[in-house]
Amino acid sequence: MDKLLIVVFGPLVFAAVLLLIATGIRRVIARLRSRRTPDQIKAAYDAYLRRLLNPQPDAVERELGKLLPERLLQLYEDKSAIQSVGFQLEKPGKKRWRTKHWPVYCFEPLDTEALNEVPYPYKEGLDPGFCFATTGRGSWYWIAASDQRAKDSPVIFLDYDGGGSQGETVANSLDEFLNWPRLPVK
């Protein structure tokens, strides 16, 4: 009886183990092939930086059919501010045992390509606007566009990563948001 089990199920177990090994090897090969070379990484960064430093607010406004706030346009004119990356903002005010931090991985280029890359928040009931910064983990900071050019606008957090802060108003204005204390990302 013991020999019968080995004869019958032995080849099945062996085939299953081979399948697992082959699948693992295939995944490793796929990962190695999909890695970008240092030249490709540099080219992608250079393209991002070129887009970031050459904002196209007119094209974005045409696409949205609305005008972006004046404070957002000023942000993109400040080349050093727009290039800052990898920080978190600490919302001042109520001191709780655990303060709220808002990570900023990088600012998004102000162009129509960014409009196509970032999810449109219309599903959340928001009017046209622009996702100007990202956390780098599937979440963005969004600011509304309007029919008349506003001086500023509230900053809304769009969490597509499932953290539960979807559509939360982070700051009453972009100016307030950008002037919060900056801390390094932990």
Give a topology summary.
Elements: H1 2-34, H2 38-53, H3 57-64, H4 70-77, H5 79-82, E1 87-90, E2 101-104, E3 106-107, H6 112-117, E4 129-134, E5 139-144, E6 155-159, E7 168-171, H7 174-178, E8 182-184
Antiparallel strand pairs: 1-2, 1-8, 3-4, 4-5, 5-6, 6-7
**Helix-strand topology string:** HHHHHEEEHEEEEHE
- The unreliable regions are none
Question: Number of domains in the coordinates?
Answer: 2
Largest sheet: 5 strands, antiparallel
Helix/strand/pairing class, anyone? alpha+beta
> Helical stretch count?
7
Determine the mean pLDDT.
85
| Widest β-sheet, arrangement of strands | 3-4-5-6-7
Report the β-strand fraction as a percent range.
15-25%
Tally of DSSP β-strands: 8
Shape descriptor reads elongated
Q: Which CATH-level-2 architecture of the largest domain?
A: 3-Layer(aba) Sandwich
Features:
single chain; 186 residues; alpha+beta; SMI1/KNR4-like; five-stranded antiparallel beta sheet; three-stranded antiparallel beta sheet; 8 strands
